[in-house]
Structure formats: C-alpha cells, structure tokens
C-alpha cells in the first residue's frame, strides 16, 4: 500500500524518444553574413526605403535637369569658368535630406515598433548589428547617389555644350566623391538615431546640423562675428557639398576631397558613441 502523497520513482525516457531527439536541420553559429542578410531583408521590405530613395532620385535627376534646361533656355554662352556638373549641386543638397531621413529610420523604426528586441534576441552582439546596418545602408545609398550623379552629369554636359568640358578629376569628385559624402552623412544620421532612439528627434537634429549653421551665418551682420560667420559658411554641409563641384559659398573653406575627410572623421566618432551607448543600454 502506498499513500497518495508518496513520491513515485521517475521513469527515464527510452532511447529514441523525445529525450534524445536530434534535429535533421544543420545547426551552425550565426555569422556577420547572416546579419547582413537580415538587415538587407529589413531595409528593402519597408515602404520608407522606397519612398525616401524614390524622392531622392526625383530630386537629384529632376532638379539637375531643370537647372540645365533653364541655363540652356537662357542661351548664355559666356563661359563662367565652371563645368556643367556644378548644376547638379542643387539636387544633391535637397536630396541629402532624404538620405538623412532614411539613415535615422534604419534604426529608430525598430525602436518604435519594438522590433529591436527581436533583433537583439536573434543577435546579442550589439556591434555586429550596428556594423551590419551601417554596411547595408552605406552601400545602398552610395550606389544610388553615385549613379544619379553620373547620369545627371552626363545629361547636363550634353544639354549645355558651351560650358567648359569637365576634367577627369572633376568627374570623379562630382560622382564618386558626392556618393561617398552623402553616404557618410547618412551614416552620421544612423548613429544619431542610435543615440536618440526617436525618429522625429533624430531627424530634427540632423536637419538642424545641415541647415542651421548656414542660416545662422546669414544673420550674423556684426563685424565682431565675422570670423564665426565665415567659419559657419565655409564648413556648413551645403558648402562642403558644393566644394565637390569646385565652388564655395564664401569663396574659401574646404576644397577637393577635404570635405570627405571631415565628414568621415565626424561619422567615425558618432558611430563609436552609438556603439558605446548600445552596449550600455538594455534595449
């Protein structure tokens, strides 16, 4: 006789049962390539990517051709000393706002929907996640901006044949240089998004970084602020972009590839700060 409360012996699961089940699916450790594939799937499957990149293409190509059409209609055949490539700067400056928006949304959208918890569960390495997002975003932006800049440059040169023929160095800066700069600006936005974790706040900050220095400089009429006004105008984002086309807002400031090194250094510092905060926070 046994009482109802007497502990019964635990029966061992026989061999071949669920206790010794082996999955036929191969199990392997996740790699950086898996993280890249995951981020590529996420960035191409959301509507914000299609809308922002679509508007970017329209602005770069549309404004570039519009300016070239206006110059051609004016029929001013006096050489200005700059090639027709400079007409593409208008579309690039406005298109950079689209890249800023996409860079922020690449990471803040996951915080807004709570998807970041799933991402961190699947890949606990914060550095791998940030690196994968950065690589995928950088490549997409760089390819699209460079292709649009090259297309616009070819069409503008053909539409304004009396403008000075661009040299090889000018072509390289107006295509490859612009693509690298805009992609780096987008990475800076991604880093700010990781730091702020709020879409509207991060986008507002980045729009202020792009436009506020130039706007402030325009209102600094005092002679005591001359040096500060010149600095803000020389190193504002629009002025740095124009430098790739051989121009400048104030007639001084960075030239050639200097702007690319400046934005690269700032972006590297911002990404380092973003990685540090990602590792310190729970989510």
Detailed description of the structure:
This protein has helices at residues 32-44, 47-74, 89-113, 115-122, 126-159, 168-196, 199-218, 226-235, 237-243, 258-280. It has 283 residues and is mostly helical. The mean pLDDT is 85. The longest helix is centred in the middle third of the chain and has 34 residues, at 126-159. The chain is built from 10 helices and no strands.
Annotation keywords:
single chain; 283 residues; mainly alpha; 70% helix; 0% strand
Task: Give the helix proportion (percent range).
Answer: 55-70%
User: Would you list the SSEs in sequence order as H and E?
Assistant: HHHHHHHHHH
Spans of at least 5 consecutive residues whose pLDDT stays below 50 are: none
> How many whole angstroms does the radius of gyration measure?
26 Å
Q: What's the N-to-C terminus distance?
A: 57 Å
Q: Which outline best applies?
A: globular
Biggest pleated sheet: none
The strand count comes to 0
Which percent band covers the strand fraction? under 5%
Mean pLDDT: 85
The helix/strand class is mainly alpha
Q: Count of DSSP helices?
A: 10
Write a concise synopsis of the structure shown.
By secondary structure, the protein is mainly α. The chain has 10 helices and no strands.
């Amino acid at each position: 006789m046994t009482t109802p409360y007497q502990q019964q012996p635990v029966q061992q699961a026989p061999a071949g049962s669920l206790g010794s089940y082996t999955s036929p699916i191969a199990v392997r450790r996740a790699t950086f390539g898996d993280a890249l594939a995951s981020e590529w799937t996420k960035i191409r499957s959301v509507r914000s990517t299609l809308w922002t990149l679509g508007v970017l293409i329209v602005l770069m190509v549309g404004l570039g051709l519009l300016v070239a059409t206006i110059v051609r209609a004016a029929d001013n055949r006096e050489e200005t000393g700059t090639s027709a490539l400079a007409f593409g700067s208008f579309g690039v400056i406005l298109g950079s706002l689209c890249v800023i928006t996409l860079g922020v949304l690449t990471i803040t959208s996951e915080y807004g929907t709570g998807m970041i918890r799933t991402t961190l569960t699947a890949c606990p390495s914060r550095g791998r996640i940030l690196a994968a997002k950065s690589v995928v975003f950088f490549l997409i932006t760089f390819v699209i901006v460079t292709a649009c800049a090259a297309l616009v440059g070819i069409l503008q040169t053909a539409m304004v044949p009396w403008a000075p023929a661009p040299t090889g160095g000018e072509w390289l800066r107006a295509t490859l240089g612009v693509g690298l700069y805009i992609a780096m600006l987008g990475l800076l936005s991604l880093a700010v998004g990781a730091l702020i974790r709020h879409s509207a706040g991060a986008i507002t900050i980045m729009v202020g970084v792009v436009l506020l220095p130039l706007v402030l400089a325009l209102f600094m009429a005092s002679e005591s602020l001359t040096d500060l006004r010149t600095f803000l105008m020389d190193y504002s984002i629009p002025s740095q972009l124009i430098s790739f086309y051989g121009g400048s807002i104030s007639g001084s400031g960075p030239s050639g590839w200097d702007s690319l090194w400046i934005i690269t250094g700032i972006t590297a510092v911002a990404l380092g700060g973003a990685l540090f905060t990602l590792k310190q926070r729970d989510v």
